[in-house]
Amino acid sequence: MIHLGKGITYSVFALLAAVAAPAQAPDSGKRQNLDRCMNGLSSCDLSQLSPNELNSVADASRKRNFSRCMSGSFTCDPTRLSQQESVTVEAEYQRRNVEKCLNGSPSCDPLSLPAAELQHVRTVRHSRNLEQCLNGAATCDPTSLSQKEQADMRAAAKRRNVENCLAGLPGCSPLDLSSAEASAVQAARHKRNLENCMNGLSACSPLDLTATEITAVSGALHRRNVENCTSGLVTCDPSLLNGPEAAAVAAARQRNGNR
Length: 259
Fold this sequence. Notes:
Blueprint: H1 6-38, H2 51-70, H3 83-102, H4 115-134, H5 147-167, H6 179-198, H7 211-231, H8 243-257
Helix pairs in contact: 5-6, 7-8
C-alpha cells in the first residue's frame, strides 16, 4: 500500500468499502430467490437462475410432487412421475385403500381391491358386524347375518336383558323374561330392597318387606340411632332411646367432654 498521508489512506479505504458493499446485495437477493424456488414458492423468479440452479429446482419440485402423490394429496400430478415412481405410488395407494376398507372407512374403494384382499375385507367386516350385533350396538346390521348368527344375537340380547333386570338397570325389559327369569328377578329385587332398608338408604321401600324383615329393619335402625347418639352425630334421634340407652349415651358424651 502506498501511504500518501493519513487522510488520503482513510479515503482509499472508504472508497474500497463503498465499491464492495453494493456487490453483496445482488448475491443475497439471488440466494433468497433460489431458496424460494427450491421451496416451490410463487414468488420464485426462474429468470434469475443459472442452468445448474434450474436443474436443482426441477429436481426439488419432482421430489415434492412424489411426496404428495405418496401421501394421496389432491395436489399430486401423476403425469410428472417416472415409471418406477408410478409403481411405488400405486402400491402405496393400494395399501392405504386396504387399510381404509379394513377399518370401515367411507373413503374405501372396494372396486380397486384385488380379489384376495376383497375377500379378506369382507371377512373382517362381517366379524366386526357380528361382534357389534352380539354386544347390542346400534351400528349392528342384522340383515348381513346368517340364521345361526341371528339366533346367537337374540340369545345374547336375552342374556343381556336378564342381567340388566337382575341388576335393576334401566335397560331391563320385564316383558321379555320367562316365568323362571321373572321369579329370579323379583327375588333379586326383593333382596336389594331389604339391603337398602337395612342400611337406611332412601331407596328402601318398606311396603315390600315381610313382617319378619320389618322387625329386622327396625332393629337395625334402632342400633344405628344408638350409635349415632353415642357418637354425638346430628342424625341422632333421642326420642327413640329407651332409659338404659339414654343413660349410656349421656355417660358416653360426658366421657368425651372430659377428654
